[in-house]
Amino acid sequence: MSVLDNFESWKDFLGDRLHQAQSQGISEHAISDLAYDIGDYLSNHVDAKNPEEAVVKQLWNVADTKEQHAIANMMVKLVESEGTDR
């Protein structure tokens, strides 16, 4: 089963990657830019696997670039308390 199949698993996966990046000293700005790039890639190349991802994808697709950056930043905030090490 892919981490994309279950939204809670996806949040845990993202949380783990976020904590790993933070522990390696990657700046919040770099994390934000990476979150935007990942969101853009997923929206353009990956089908939503669950209802939550479908909503995020729909929001991303109707948003302008500034709003997409806001969505990416909100996803970072959403997963800050997620992950297997929390």
Question: How many DSSP H or I helices?
Answer: 4
* Count of beta strands: 0
Helix percentage: over 70%
Taking all Cα atoms into account, the compactness measure Rg is: 12 Å
**β-sheet strand percentage:** under 5%
Spans where pLDDT lies below 50 across 5 or more residues: none
- The top-level CATH class is Mainly Alpha
Query: pLDDT average, as an integer?
Result: 88
Biggest sheet descriptor: none
Helix and strand content put the structural class at mainly alpha
Order of helices and strands: HHHH
Total discrete domains: 1
Globally, the shape reads globular
N-C termini distance: 22 Å
CATH architecture descriptor: Orthogonal Bundle
CATH domain topology: Cytochrome Bc1 Complex, Chain D, domain 2
Task: Give a nutshell description of this structure.
By secondary structure, the protein is mainly α. The protein is 72% helix and 0% strand. Helix 2 crosses helix 4.
